[in-house]
Design goal:
The structure is a homodimer. Chain A is an alpha/beta fold. Chain A is about 40% helix and about 20% strand. Chain A has 13 helices and 13 strands. In chain A, strands 4-3-2-1-5-6-7 form a seven-stranded mixed beta sheet, with helices on both faces. In chain A, strands 9-11-10-8-12-13 form a six-stranded mixed beta sheet. Chain A is globular. The two termini of chain A are about 15 Å apart. At the A-B interface, helix 7, strand 13 and helix 13 of A face helix 7, strand 13 and helix 13 of B. Strand 13 of chain A pairs antiparallel with strand 13 of chain B, so a sheet runs across the interface.
């Protein structure tokens, strides 16, 4: 295979929480489990975290050591020879890399920053970007996408919505000729899990604690419970797939904080279920978006989405609606979304090299 | 746009039943409704049917006239100046076209023929092929695909399974690096519709007649009721997505003919539903496939698929299972599958032309 003769894709990783560590694990100790990853040749030349320090090495970071330090001590050790004192923005601006992988958490308070600045720095240097952080695409979609196009580089973000489930790629690569008229989905795992547990009799607070124990709800679950995460995701989808220019403040938003056991029992008597539903639709020449607690009737494709499951219903002009359901995803799914995007970058590298020969 | 300056894609249409006429309608009288079709420049240079005659014209068939003749008289008129006496195989071998569009019905009795011969004739002439007929891909997948690859042409068949819902394209273009471990789906609309109506109290025969009245069940529904159509579809998927080499005779197959109202009531008491489920899985280094009547538990992603709905659950090594649901599709969806494939051919034509300049 040709891939054995080309240099690896040099990656700078910003953020190394669950997803970052999962990615490093798949690329190192778990690699042999996945034969399909054979064609993916990646070298991580830098990892920067918010509070755990940073490592960088022109010949590739010692990933097994880095992973073990993060998992044992919670931060990179001072003895690590790859340890550097730079912060994320500095590394994005100065390190020699091919792809920036942005994995820092969503910030509503700072309207997508500092991730927007990280990504802009990489794009301005004509470097590709893969992001699992939805903030930049909920707050600065047009700006960043225009910049990427003008520099001729990839700006990919499949894992920002429904983790690795290929909703963005599906709409882009497989709905040729279709015009997307409306989107409707369950896009936040934490609230869907909490509502499912509440149906079984738990109080909201108990269900949230269970989600935290299982590692998928944040220590501060406010962004999930108040519908901000869902609002950011429907913005990403509307911006990417319907040509909208929305940010989360434009979304008519409701959370699940006030849903009670009685509400759930009331709708259950009719066979319905309460869900936090995201919607985007075309109206008066523009696109509007909404996040609301709704009673979903039995038989509706979103009715059976339980636990951490996510689902998106896509209505187009040329076809019956398509629903993509992700069955109980976890951290591995976000990792896969990033890997899939890295594959796309790798393939375009191969094409470029063929072209320039 | 560049597309305005290139000659149109010359298409030979074999078969002109519901799907063929739907395609002609979308390309003519309904065209203005679908702005996304702008880039698709198609000229139909021949239409051949089993019992309705054939028309051909080097400068493009008069489609409005052809459509009106088929819809009024049931066959091409002898006065039609485009009328020719050739049959489908002759046209496939002799007419000057870029793409063969194969829309003849599935034949289990003739193991995919005569569609296999139509397609082989086109491929041997290095012409692209788009097919909505699943027979060739259930009976001769490897042969035909190898031939297409050796001639450097497209052999596309998105609409053979789940109509236009992009399950083949999804797996090919958006699951990079993943290995598909198993497939599970509801793939036959007629049986799913019949089971849904039987749940409401209709007898099997009444439900079949209703499906025929509504135009989606065949006059002879045997292939659907006995599970042959479903078996052909799971073969197409296993062959295309899991590297299998199966044909419908290899499938452990069961139909719905013996399902009774009592069976449905029994499972309904537990909250389950009876469905005709197709499965493919990896076993002992190979792939095996099965079609069986199963009780699907409430909460399972296939549970809520009602009426003519179809769904496919894809299990991979790298991700949580993905389910694609098609919500009550009709003839238009098969038409869209063909259009999507024609887009793919058009795009590669544009690339070739760019390359040869």
């Amino acid at each position: 295979m040709d891939s054995s003769r080309r240099p690896p894709l040099r990656v700078l990783l910003l953020g190394c929480g669950n997803v970052g560590r999962g990615l490093v694990r798949v690329l190192t100790v778990e690699r042999d489990r996945y034969p399909g990853l054979e064609g993916l040749d990646i070298q991580i030349v830098g990892i920067s975290t918010g509070t755990r320090g940073a490592v960088a090495s022109d010949s590739g970071v010692d990933l097994v050591r880095a992973l073990s330090e993060l998992e044992r001590g919670g931060h990179f050790s001072n003895q690590n020879p790859d340890r550097v004192e730079s912060d994320s923005l500095q590394l994005a601006r100065e390190l020699d890399y091919d792809v920036l992988v942005e994995l820092t958490p969503l910030s509503i308070e700072h309207r997508g920053e500092p991730a927007i600045s990280h990504i802009r720095s990489a794009l301005e240097r004509s470097r590709h970007v893969v992001s699992a952080n939805k903030g930049p695409f909920a707050y600065a979609y047009r700006d960043l996408m225009n910049l990427a196009v003008s520099r001729g580089v990839h700006l990919l973000h499949e894992s920002t919505v429904m983790d690795g489930a290929p909703v963005l790629n599906l709409a882009r690569h497989t709905l040729k000729g279709c015009r997307i008229l409306a989107l409707e989905g369950i896009l936040n795992s934490t609230t869907n899990y909490v509502l499912s547990r509440m149906e079984e009799g738990l109080a909201l607070q108990e269900a949230v604690e269970l989600a935290q124990l299982q590692g998928f709800a944040e220590a501060d679950p406010t962004l999930d419970l108040q519908g901000w995460d869902a609002a950011a995701k429907i913005c990403v989808l509307a911006n990417a797939l319907m040509g909208a220019d929305l940010n989360p403040s434009d979304v008519d938003r409701q959370g699940i904080e006030r849903v009670t056991a009685e509400d759930l029992q009331d709708v259950d008597r009719r066979g319905d279920r309460i869900k936090l539903i995201c919607r985007a639709s075309r109206q008066d020449g523009g696109v509007s978006a909404k996040v609301a607690v709704e009673a979903v009737p039995r038989g509706h494709p979103l009715w059976s989405v339980s636990g951490t499951g996510n689902a998106l219903r896509i209505t187009t002009d040329l076809m019956a609606p398509i629903v993509v359901v992700q069955d109980n995803p976890g951290v591995k799914d976000t990792v896969y979304g990033v890997l899939g995007d890295l594959f796309t970058v790798t393939e375009s590298f191969d094409l470029e090299r063929k072209g320039s020969r």
